[in-house]
Every structure is written in C-alpha cells, then in structure tokens.
Design brief:
Chains A, B: This is TetR/AcrR family transcriptional regulator. Chains A, B: It comes from Corallococcus terminator. Chains A, B: Residues 38-57 bind DNA. Chains A, B: InterPro entries: DesT_TetR_C, Homeodomain-like_sf, HTH-type_TetR-like_transc_reg, HTH_TetR. The structure is a homodimer of 223-residue chains. By secondary structure, chain A is an all-alpha fold. Chain A has 2 domains: 14-71, Arc Repressor Mutant, subunit A (Orthogonal Bundle), CATH 1.10.10.60; 76-205, no CATH class. The first copy, chain A, is built from 9 helices and no strands. Chain A has helices at residues 14-31, 39-46, 50-57, 60-72, 87-105, 107-113, 122-142, 152-176, 181-205. In chain A, helix 4 (60-72) runs parallel beside helix 7. The longest helix of chain A has 25 residues, at 152-176. The structure holds a DNA duplex (30 and 30 nucleotides).
DNA sequence: TAGCTTGTTGGCGGAGCGTCAACAGCAAGA
DNA sequence: TCTTGCTGTTGACGCTCCGCCAACAAGCTA
C-alpha cells in the first residue's frame, strides 16, 4: 500500500557519516569553546544519535582532535614556485601565502590554534606542536635555507616560537581588528627576516650545547 | 577531662580561607589541565568541603579566573631604574627582567598563558588580553618610547602580538627544553629591537586608517 | 555557661558523557 | 516477493561532576 513508508533514518557508508559529523563538529567548535559544545549539540546538528559519535570517534576529545588535525592540514606551500629573489622577497611571499590561507579558514583557525581549544591536553598540544613543526620545516624550506642537521632542532624551535608571533598577530588581525592586514604583513615579515638573517647566524656560532645534564655519561644511563 | 576535644574543622577568616583555597587551586591548575582538575580535588587539597568553593568563588570558572588574575599580576618593571643606554641595552634589560620573572612562576605561568587554560572562554581571554595590554604598555614605557596617542592602539596591538612570540618562546624554553635561556634571550631581544626600530617608524608613516569600512559615513551608521 | 553570628558541611538534583544491548535499514539469496 | 543476515544506528542506563541550599557547629560575647 503506502509506498515503502519512508524510513526514520538513512543508512550511510561509514566514511560518509564520519565526514558529515566532522563537518558539523568543526563548525560548532569554531563558534563556541570546547566545553560549551556538548556532544548532544553535535549529534543534533548532524541529525544523529549521540551514541554514534562515540562509535565513530571514541571520546569527545578524540573527535576534537580530528577537527584540529583537519584544520591544520593546510594545502602546502608551493615549493615548486621559483624561490628566487632576495631574502626579503622570499619572506614576504611566504607571509603573504600564510595570511591568504588563514583568511579562508577564518574563525575556526583562530579558535583551534589559540586558546579556543580544549585546554592543556597533552595530546592536543602534541598535535598542534607537530603541525607547528611541519609549518616550521615548510617555512625553512620555502625560504630556501640549508641548515646543517646538528642545529636543526634549535632552528625549528625558533620557527615554532615565531609561530606564536604569527598566531597572536593573526588574532589581533582577525578578531580584535586592531591591526590591518598590512600591519600584520609588515610585522611578520620584519620579524622573520631578522630571525633568519640575524638570529640564525649567531645560533650557528654557538657549539650547540645539548642543554641540561646528561653530560658525562660515565656513571650509567639510569641516573 | 579530655582537654577541649579538638574540633573537626578550624574556622578561618574569609580572607584567609579564600587565600588558602586560591593557593591550592593555583597549584593544581598548574599541574593538570582545567578540565582534569575537579572541584572535589581542589576541596580535598585544601581540606575543605566542596561546597565552600562555590560559597567563596561562585563557579569553578570564576575560581580559575582568580588564579589567572593572580598569576598575571606580576611585580612591575622597575621603571625607576635609569633607563639610559642604547636601544639594544634597554631591550636586553627588559627581556632579561621578563625571563627572570617567568622563571620564578614556572609551569603555572605556562599553563595559564598557553593553551593550558580553560579554553576560549571570553572572560578568560579578556583577562589575559588585559594583562597582555598592561604588559605591552609597561614594555613601551620601559623602552622609553614616547608615542603619539593617535597610533598608540596599533603599537599596543603590535606589542601584544610580540607577547605571543614571548609566550611561545618561553614554552619552548620551559617545557620543551628545545631552547636554552640564551637562545630565548637572543630571539626575543632581536625581535623586539626590529619591531621598535623598523616596524614602528613605518607604522607612523601610514595615515593610520581606521580599518575596514566605516569610511564615507554619509550613508548612515547602521549599514 | 548560654546565646548568637557566620564559617562550613553534606546531600540533592541536574547535566554531560561513555557504554552496550537491541533495533532497523537494506542488500543478497531463495 | 519473502526471507535472511550484516552492520549502521538508536536509546537508555550508570557514572562523574557541578551548583545550590538548608542544617550544623566553631568560637566570640555577655
């Protein structure tokens, strides 16, 4: 009689459903702080039972991790672009690209990279830190710097620190609107130039001490 | 007989009790993320009933706010110190002072200023942002800069952005241990110098546009 | 010692989250 | 078309955490 009596819910492929939930979660996490987005909200937004979130992502924290990962997985710098020109030209091009990329992601980027996240969760920090590191390596590559491997770790740490400047500046630009894009571009370019040109050479001079103790390993490894 | 049968709990002055609870809370918030510190933990740490936290601080969030405020209320820069010498000397002295101050607070500072906090809570952000602003103004004063009021807001925004670099660098130093104190000092000094010396003059040249629209206000303010 | 002020306790009710057994969409076989 | 089975999906149960509040008791005062 009644032709099939439309089903109460639609059955999707796992990947489809996962993707759909991820999108809804990303949107909500971009609008409100982590703690103020309940799994009920996300489930409702996706038109799905709350338990399904756990089925696909485990804990709420894991779902948030996926959102962060996706947000930080930006299209890579076009390293194929001819990276010629002066240091300043390369730096400004790099900054230009980054500002463009961030502008498209908008508030969600700010929310995820800033304090808008979950809090000092070790896993979240690891993810973001890794992403920062990838960005750092990309930046170094993009600038065409050949660094000897010995001090590479410190250079990367420097660039990660620079990432802090980048994020703070972008926050001032996107949210606070206290800086214009030109201001941000100027600040970030000058800072990056001085780091690469002035700080790195000085770093290279130092004997790259391994920091802390762990010198004189004669007494045994266990301390 | 038994001399007074010691009471089950001691009655304190409100200020004392408040202070005691604040200390315990600060310690725990420094050790674990916000979400993983339950009010029960704090109450237990302070040897007090959980309900008392609400009595003195209202919500858990408000207690955290108090902790953040206390943490950011650092002893001011000794502006009385003779601020003579070259720009580089003043900058290096400023950075020196800041690194010293942070070193004493250690992990709690990192936890509070970094992503170790509550998340994108508007109130927390406002507090931290205000503290950043105070730090920015102090820094400008300390550097002995006389800025015309017109572009003052932008300069402060720049210094707040610089604060992002400071925090990230300190994180690399304190937690990651990927940078030595000398590395941090070098990076922060050079960056601050280039901002004050190269970025600010360029900023001052621009006509300080009020940003965004709100130009040609003839069509009406409501848009 | 009796009384009063108020710092403090402990339990109630609600909200959010993880788990899990049962349900149902839907495709393949008879 | 009916049946069967796989598995995507649901909904409720139990736990933990938090804000609230009436009752309790520490300790000063007369």
């Amino acid at each position: 009689m009644s032709p099939a009596l439309s089903p109460r819910w639609k059955r999707l492929e796992p990947d489809e459903r996962r993707e759909q939930i991820l999108e809804c979660a990303a949107r909500l996490f971009g609008e409100r702080p982590y703690a103020e987005v309940s799994t009920t909200d996300i489930a409702k937004e996706a038109g799905v039972a709350r338990g399904l979130l756990n089925h696909y992502f485990g804990q709420k924290r894991d779902l948030y991790l996926k959102v962060v990962k996706r947000m930080l997985l930006m299209p890579g710098l076009e390293t194929s672009v001819t990276m010629t020109g002066t240091l300043r030209e390369r730096v400004e091009k790099s900054v230009e690209w980054y500002l463009d990329t961030v502008a498209t992601h908008g508030k969600t980027y700010v929310a995820v990279t800033g304090m808008g996240g979950i809090g000092a969760d070790p896993e979240v920090e690891r993810i973001i830190s890794e992403a920062d590191d990838v960005a750092a390596v990309r930046t170094l590559e993009f600038l065409g710097l050949k660094i000897e491997v010995g001090s590479d770790a410190r250079h990367r740490a420097m660039i990660r620190s620079y990432g802090g400047l980048v994020k703070a500046t972008i926050r001032e630009w996107i949210r606070g609107e206290t800086l214009s894009r030109e201001d941000a571009h100027l600040l970030l370019s000058e800072a990056l130039i001085v780091i690469v040109r002035d700080v790195f050479p000085q770093l290279a001079q130092q004997p790259a001490p391994a920091r802390g103790e762990a010198r004189t390993p004669k007494t045994g490894p266990k301390r």
